[in-house]
């Protein structure tokens, strides 16, 4: 046998015979040299009886239901999309969110409540002149989003009406904060009630615009004061806000938007765990959100083990080409995020962010992100599909909402993998070859298996 090849086996324990219609698997491949970009391979892989040992896939062992895969639709992303010609924008939205043969089925979006650091300027929905406040929110208005974010979301919802949308703020209005500044600082306790009302007004306003918000996080990266905008919120403060203000305000307004706590890095699972120990906060908190700029993805399992009745969400990660990368190096981000997050109980995977221009803008002038490449680069109607696009699409195209993660166990150091069972009972296996060698492995279901070859650094999705 060629020593440059790595051999594993993938079998299913669920039954002993494949139905006649499922004797072959389709293969969708992305390679670093871009010779294959999320492309269905011409040759299907045939199954045969096999008892080969190795990785075991068991569709009788089920874990969490998946809500979707997607991106953050920042204000900057929406602004760039609105600069496209209507025909080009319509075609792009169909490709991103549709379920046709050429579409990638993006099924989850994160939007920013007010500006993020990927906007061309800072704003909230109730900005006041220095020295003035508006505790009754008489000046609240969604007008800043009416030129781009709201129109783009409406177009997306026409293509996929059931897409899930998560809303996250980067800051409260400056007049509510102890430093009276968009950057850093904390929410004054005297304005917790007003800020809960601000949320209610936002959710009802979006609802009136035909945009249902499925979930929210009270604060993006609550431990990061360095972005412009940003706001610091401790676990104790967030527990107090959720349990005594935000949760009751949503309940009183008849809103069923899920509350997801934390929304920050995997280096501090204690934030979520401590918050959920607070009975008032836990009553209203659906689960916890994580990023992976620091820490290990297994922090999500740590949180799950502490509170198995609460949900986990992967709410942000930037995936960009590294400085010295040659080709499309997506094997490791797919392994870390698309495979790693669901393997650690996440119901979704969201990447940062959907679109940027060729200069990685727009972003705020000071405290914005000058290296945040979009999943796509938009230069007018010209579209460049980047590493994050293929990273997310390798799952979103094949794993629709309502799919369930199923067991896939065995050696995974060289070939990380995750498996799902779709609502139509199709098996989906995503495999990432993180080595610099060609890998040959065997995969299968119901007592039968097929042999596949995966180029070095490549990712494949197998569907049967």
Automatic annotation (TrEMBL):
GO molecular function annotation: glucosylceramidase activity
Keyword Signal: yes
Signal recorded as keyword: yes
Gene3D superfamilies for this protein: Glycosidases, Golgi alpha-mannosidase II
Record protein name field: Glucosylceramidase
PANTHER family documented for this protein: GLUCOSYLCERAMIDASE, LYSOSOMAL ACID GLUCOSYLCERAMIDASE
Organism annotation: Granulicella pectinivorans
Stated family: Belongs to the glycosyl hydrolase 30 family.
Glycosyl hydrolase family 30 beta sandwich domain residues: 402-462
Domain Glycosyl hydrolase family 30 TIM-barrel: start-end pairs: 67-398
């Amino acid at each position: 046998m060629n020593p440059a090849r790595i051999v594993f086996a993938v079998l299913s324990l669920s039954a002993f015979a494949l139905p006649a219609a499922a004797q072959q698997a389709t293969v969708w491949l992305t390679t670093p040299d871009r010779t294959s970009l999320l492309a269905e391979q011409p040759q299907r892989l045939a199954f045969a009886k096999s008892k080969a040992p190795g990785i075991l896939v068991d569709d009788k062992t089920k874990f969490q239901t998946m809500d979707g895969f997607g991106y953050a639709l920042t204000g900057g992303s929406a602004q760039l999309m609105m600069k496209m010609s209507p025909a080009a924008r319509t075609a792009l939205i169909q490709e991103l969110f549709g379920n046709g043969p050429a579409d990638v089925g993006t099924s989850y979006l994160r939007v920013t409540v007010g500006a993020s650091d990927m906007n061309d300027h800072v704003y909230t929905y109730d900005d006041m002149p220095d020295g003035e406040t508006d505790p009754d929110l008489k000046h609240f208005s969604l007008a800043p989003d009416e030129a781009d974010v709201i129109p783009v979301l409406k177009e997306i919802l026409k293509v996929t009406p059931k897409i899930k949308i998560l809303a996250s703020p980067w800051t409260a209005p400056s007049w509510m904060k102890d430093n009276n500044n968009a950057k850093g600082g904390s929410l004054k306790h005297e304005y917790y009630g007003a800020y809960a009302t601000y949320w209610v007004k936002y959710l009802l306003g979006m609802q009136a615009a035909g945009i249902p918000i499925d979930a929210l996080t009270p604060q993006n990266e609550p431990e990061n004061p360095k972005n412009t905008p940003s706001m610091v919120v401790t676990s104790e403060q967030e527990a107090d806000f959720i349990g005594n203000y935000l949760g009751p305000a949503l309940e009183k307004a008849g809103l069923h938007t899920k509350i997801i706590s934390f929304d920050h890095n995997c280096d501090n699972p204690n934030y979520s765990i401590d918050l959920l120990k607070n009975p008032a906060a836990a009553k209203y908190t659906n689960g916890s959100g994580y990023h992976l700029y620091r820490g290990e993805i297994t922090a999500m399992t740590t949180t799950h083990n502490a509170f198995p009745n609460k949900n986990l969400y992967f709410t942000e990660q930037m995936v960009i080409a590294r400085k010295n990368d040659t080709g499309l190096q997506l094997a490791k981000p797919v392994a870390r995020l698309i495979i790693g997050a669901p393997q650690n109980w996440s119901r979704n995977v969201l990447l940062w962010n959907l679109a940027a221009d060729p200069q990685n803008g727009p972003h705020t002038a000071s405290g914005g992100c000058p290296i945040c490449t979009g999943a796509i680069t938009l230069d007018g109607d010209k579209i460049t599909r980047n590493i994050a696009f293929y990273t997310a699409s390798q799952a979103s195209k094949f794993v629709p909402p309502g799919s369930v993660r199923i067991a896939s166990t065995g050696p995974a150091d060289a070939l990380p993998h995750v498996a799902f069972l779709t609502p139509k009972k199709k098996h989906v296996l995503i495999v990432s070859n993180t080595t610099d060698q060609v890998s040959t492995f065997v995969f299968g279901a119901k007592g039968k298996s097929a042999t596949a070859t995966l180029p070095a650094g490549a990712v494949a999705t197998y569907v049967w």
